[in-house]
Design a protein that fits this description.
Blueprint: E1 2-7, E2 10-13, E3 18-26, E4 33-39, E5 46-51, E6 58-60, E7 68-73, E8 78-83, E9 92-99, E10 117-118, E11 122-127
Parallel strand pairs: 2-11
Antiparallel strand pairs: 1-3, 3-8, 4-5, 4-9, 5-6, 7-8, 9-10, 9-11
Length: 128
C-alpha cells in the first residue's frame, strides 16, 4: 500500500509559478512510476506529466511541454511538479499517482486507469 499526499497548490496570477510536491509513504517508492494528472470542473481527468520507473525518462502532455517539469527524489520519497508560465487554462485539481512495475508492459504512462494509487489532490487556480 502507498499513501500519497500532495501539497503546494494555491492561487497564482497568469505567468507565475508554483511547485507541487507529492510525498509518498508505504512501499518502496523507487519501484513506482509517478505521474501527475489534473481535472478541471466539468472535464475529464487528463495526463500532465510522468516519470518512469527508472527515473530516467519523463513524459509530458503537449499542453504543458516546455513549461512544467516533473522530478523525483527517491531519498525523500517525493515527486515534484514545477509549473512555470502558468495560464488560466491550467486551473484544475492536480493529482499525483503511483504505478507499480507490474504494469510496465500494460501501456503508456499517460493512461490514468493503469495507476494503482492516487493522492487526494491539490487545487491550482491561475487568475488572468
Amino acid at each position: 500500500q502507498v499513501q500519497l499526499v500532495e501539497s503546494g497548490g494555491g492561487l497564482v496570477q497568469a505567468g507565475g509559478s508554483l511547485r507541487l510536491s507529492c510525498a509518498a509513504s508505504g512501499r518502496t517508492f523507487s519501484s513506482y512510476a509517478m505521474g501527475w494528472f489534473r481535472q478541471a470542473p466539468g472535464k475529464e481527468r487528463e495526463f500532465v506529466a510522468a516519470n518512469s520507473w527508472s527515473g530516467s525518462s519523463t513524459y509530458y502532455a503537449d499542453s504543458v511541454k516546455g513549461r512544467f517539469t516533473i522530478s523525483r527524489d527517491n531519498a525523500k520519497n517525493t515527486v515534484y511538479l514545477q509549473m512555470n508560465r502558468l495560464k488560466p487554462e491550467d486551473t484544475a485539481v492536480y493529482y499525483c499517482a503511483a504505478r507499480g512495475d507490474h504494469t510496465v508492459l500494460a501501456g503508456p504512462l499517460s493512461i490514468a486507469s493503469l495507476y494503482d494509487y492516487w493522492g487526494q489532490g491539490t487545487q491550482v487556480t491561475v487568475s488572468s
